[in-house]
Amino acid sequence: MNTTRPEPTTPDPSATPAAAGTGRVVLLTTSHRVAPGLLSWPAWQALRAADRVLCADGAHPQLPYLREAGTAVDEAAPTAEELVDACAGGRTVVVVATGEGEPALTDGLARLAGSGRVPMPELELLPASYDLPGARLLDLVQVMDRIRAECPWSSRQTHQGLAKYGIEEAYELVEAIEEGDRDELREELGDVLLQVVFHARIAEEDPDAPFSIDDVAGGIVAKLIHRHPHVFGDETASTPEEVKEHWLRTKAVEKRRASVTDGIPLAQPGLALAAKLASRVRTAGLEVPLPQAPGIGYELLALAARAETEGVDPEAALRAAARAYRDAVRAAEGVER
């Protein structure tokens, strides 16, 4: 492994010096979601300048990298009083925090400081690594791995068995959006994300065509880049209409479909299906008259096509009207909303 050992540096004159005689305690925190050894430069500086480096966890993932970089680490779990004593004479002690942090140590230091009876060293919390955006997704994948392996219900689920939950969660997400409930929206997005991770975890076990959540993510990343040449390539687009044109043109080349209706899921709700068909026809510039026949279905088809032409989502419009009807029913019953 190639770990670059930081070169010694002269002290930063702008830094606050340790109080004379009382010294300095640096609590060094790291994220388990970032590869061990990838520490910030201020963290390496603190480690190299320390008179002593302590860590209570002998199996801490950072220790091999610190030692390879030439930093001696003592495996010790001092009390607050012992740590204060270790800083006597103006010494600096760096404590490499464990995964749970050091709550007992920090609470003890707070009690000592609050007592006013003990000269306290300078205390500093120094994050050595930060979570990258999306890092908590790694936690979700790990949790799902364990649930799949150990939960009697989750370990028996299949794609087919989970399909109904995906539909339910999607509808609950739409409801949260339409209700404008931010807390509910965050929760429902999590439930939808769970379905994606759950299905990907099941897919890993397929004997013939396995794939993982990384394959899922890699596929959508590649698709997004390819379908946004105005962002990642040389194309230009200054309006939403031009973006949509790029998207449809690129998608048509990818899919090589014989008909504009190819790829439209026929199992979706009827109004949404009718609007999608009308959208494809309009976007393709086709002139296809709506079928004429007696019956409410053909009337609904015409209404859905009209809504799409006017930029209205017929499903959302009908749900809004249905909510108003529900409120009227509850009012007639004397039931509060």
Summarize this structure as a short list of keywords or feature phrases.
single chain, 337 residues, five-stranded parallel beta sheet, 7% strand, disordered N terminus
Describe the protein's architecture and organization:
The structure is a single chain. The protein is elongated and about 95 Å long. The chain is built from 13 helices and 5 strands. The longest helix is centred in the middle third of the chain and has 22 residues. β2, α2 and β3 form a beta-alpha-beta unit. The chain is 52% helix and 7% strand. It has a 5-stranded parallel sheet with strand order 3-2-4-1-5, sandwiched between helices. α5 packs across α7, α6 runs antiparallel to α7 and α11 packs across α12. The chain is of the alpha/beta class and 337 residues long.
What is the overall number of helices? 13
- Look at the helices and sheets and give the structural class: alpha/beta
What's the β-strand tally?
A: 5
For the biggest sheet, the summary is: 5 strands, parallel
Q: If you average the pLDDT, what whole number results?
A: 89
Which geometry do the CA atoms define? elongated
Q: Element order, helices and strands?
A: EHEHEHEHEHHHHHHHHH
Strand content: 5-15%
Q: Percent range for helical residues?
A: 40-55%
- Rg on CA atoms, Å: 30 Å
Poorly predicted sequence stretches spanning 5 or more consecutive residues: 1-19
Separation, N- and C-terminal Cα atoms: 64 Å
Q: Give the spatial strand order of the biggest sheet.
A: 3-2-4-1-5
